[in-house]
Amino acid sequence: LRERGVGPERVVALGLGRSVALVVAILAVQRAGGAYLPLDLDHPADRLAYLVEDAGATLLVAEPGTLPELRIDRISPEISCFNAEFQAISPLDAAYVIYTSGSTGRPKGVVVSHAGIADLTRSLVNTFGLDATSRVPQIGAPTFDISVAELCMAFGSGGTLIIPPDGPLAGPDLGRVLRERRVTFSLLTSGVLASVPPGDYPDLRGLASGADVCPPELVSAWKGRRFWNAYGPTETTVAASLSDPLHPGGGLPPIGRPLLGNRLYVLDARLRPVPVGVPGELYAAGPGVARGYLGRPGHTAERFVADPYGPAGERMYRTGDLVYRRPDGQLHFLGRADDQMKVRGFRIEPAEVEAVLAGHGSVARAAVALRDGRLVAYLVPRSESPSVGDVLAHAVAALPAPMVPSEYVVLDTLPITPRGKVDRAALPAPAAATESSREPVTDRESVLCAIFAELLGVPAVGAEDDFFRLGGDSIVAIRLVSRARADALRLTPREVFVARTPAALAAVARDTAPAVADSPTGRFPLTPIMHWWREHGGPLASFTQSLVLPVPEGLDDARIVSALRTLATRHPALRMRLLRHPDAAWELEVPPPDEPPQILYATANTEPGTLPAPPPLDPEHGRMLAATRFAPGRLLLTAHHWAVDGVSWRILAPELTTLLTPDSKAPDGEAPDGVLPDGEAPNGVGPVERTSFARWARLLAAEAVRPGRVAAELPVWERIAADEEARLIPGHDRPLRGAPRTTLTRTLPPGGTEQVITHLPAAFRCGPDEVLLTALAAAVARWRGHGTGVLVEVEGHGREPLPEEVDDDVDVAGTVGWFTAQYPVRLDAGGSPADALKRVKEQLRAIPSGGLGHGLLRYLNPDTAPRLAALPAPDLRFNYLGRFEGELAGMPDAPMAYAVELDVIAQTGQDGTRLVASWSYAAGAITGERIEALAGLWFDELATLAGHAGEGGATSSDFPLVDLTQGQIEALEADLDGDW
């Protein structure tokens, strides 16, 4: 090792499983003065490569052939001894680096010093009474710092280290190791220890439980032996405290007192000590505190802060754990701050609820989790399945009402992570409830409940049911506003986000007369998104979107064509045409209603499982819609993208389905083809558009030059675009016009998808797009390796309300057209996952007018357009298209305008809803390997966010009429019992 340059502050990666070779390698690295980095061979290769690169490892020690993906220097076992001059090792030198997800979910290397190990060894050996006769097993994975404690206990006492075969050890297999290898002492996680059948272990004199909450029944199960409870995050060198020896029959075990030479403080938010018995955050100080996070001074400064109560210049580590000090001086663990749950505004520590549940005679172990705003209990029975009624009565007698679980799930065992903790993310969802909340009591509530049920596809909705918990998103919110308008109720999409339930929306809705349809014909200007397309170029004829729809078998072609003509008549964008003038100006025109729509219709024979090619369309001749009938009962509907967007498909698909149903009034006989009398529609088909696409385009042109819009928004867009370092690839300014497009598609299974697009938005009072963008910003920051600011071009639906002084009667929720708005936003997803989501939510909601104004000033205002055009544009684009129940068969052949483009769809099928992510990237700007890494990091960040749904809550944008800070909101949530 020394011959290879290993010495102080040099990291050596160890790719070895549990073995004698691993122990020898650890001791050799430390003897050489270096720091070892353990690698888990079961982890994905790309993650291992990331750890090795991030740690700056000098060497890799591994068995031949086990890690072929890693290409750094190797050590041959034939190297002879090298008598280089020994370099003295300082107590403050790095001894090892262990990676932890940390509060942000990004793997960070915790650097632990030799001083920390020496302090830990003295404390454990003295407290546990270990000596040369002690036999300690190596059970912990090398990447889990309990393995460090095992080495310290065995070698620090002069005892024996027992090395079982490699692989996970728990249950009866671990019991056999304890018995047959005559183990005298072992430190195990409570989850692993609970899996071992108690019995005759004649040599086992002592046990310690660590890394997770120790239930009191675990102490009773191992009576007759000395038993300790240990506590400590990785940043405190394995353990920060140990309890006094525990005895059966006690309550929830304390985490004890600080280890020898260390200090533990219980402080409030202002770093003031709290009285005995009062909860506070735990801070650790002393030689056991790690040096910090490798190569991350910013994160280190956030968690390792100055110690105001210790010697000058010393630091303390902010654990994020909530504790209180008992009168006897021992600390009692309440739970990690970011594990904290809230039900109806009541803060709940899961450990307290779990201890009560496990105190019932029929329950061996218990865990709780937050599911859709409900506290769910998971019970492992002692023998026979416990009576849920009895356990509920037991909980009611011991806990305040908000802390009593509302649902109970009986499991054979609790899922355990590789580190031996209860894996809360793997706890199964309870059976879906079939009952809704209270029945509506007013006409408004009844109307809104019916609209909720219709749009969300559920059989019944109660007055207090939450829009987002039922699967709503921003796109469905637009449709809800339109449907309410049809029933003479006026709402805005923002009110849907804030009020969320039929009862609350009924209270804020205004009565209004149904809007009168405008005249949709004549010439009108291009919208901003069309100017963007023209600027970047591309084949116009193939710029289409397609959707596969079911059609009744036996339906004749004439009926389908007639229905398509009716559809085009009802939605004029489907028959508009492009006008190119000699002066290079472009504009659009909708012909008079007596001019028949240009519909392309064909039939095709295709191989099973394949789709016909969508036909090219011709906007200059008004051919904007086509349909191909193929396979039994399937229709490929293709529209030019200038005429449709994601919202448009949600309007067209149900209308066409209704027009094609056998009991629908056939539009035959209407003159001309498919034209309906004013305001009339076939049975089951909604009213005609209230604000036409043509009128909308004219209103945008006027709004773009309104002085109020320019003064309010131009500085905003200039400031956002100025942050060059926040770009995906800083300094990359290579033109992308004509660059080949390559697409990588990744899919999230239904379980994870529902967490991301339903549960998280409900918990954080946000939309799915805000969840997806939070994860994207965090992933890009990790992928890029510097900074937390990320510049993204976001695509929104663009159907934002215009100022009332412009027009107070605009309703485009039911209008078909290309409304998309694109705008840049700078996102910062630093901090804990929950804080990051709340921060990004506020950053997005601070964007004026949902981003609509950027396109207005960039393309429609002759004074501001040159200024914005001169600014560097983002090189990363994001677009969430929402939920689709049909089969979205084709995306448009669009020009490559960004280095990376991410399009996300929530695709609903027979087995549930899956999140489908399409990563497109420009050749020459980025490699496929880098895109695969970014896509993987994005899914990792989504999973991290999903694990923090219990930390949801409101933010300041949820209360637009009052000026509240985030701290004030959280204080109110803690004080109020759900009265929001």
TrEMBL record:
One of its GO terms (cellular component) is cytoplasm. Residues 660-685, 731-753 are annotated as: Disordered. Keywords: Antibiotic biosynthesis, Phosphopantetheine, Phosphoprotein, Repeat. Residues 737-753 have a biased composition (Low complexity). One of its GO terms (molecular function) is phosphopantetheine binding. GO terms for biological process: amino acid activation for nonribosomal peptide biosynthetic process; antibiotic biosynthetic process; lipid biosynthetic process; secondary metabolite biosynthetic process. Residues 439-513 form the Carrier domain. Its cofactor is pantetheine 4'-phosphate. This is Amino acid adenylation domain-containing protein. The lineage of its organism: Bacteria, Bacillati, Actinomycetota, Actinomycetes, Streptosporangiales.
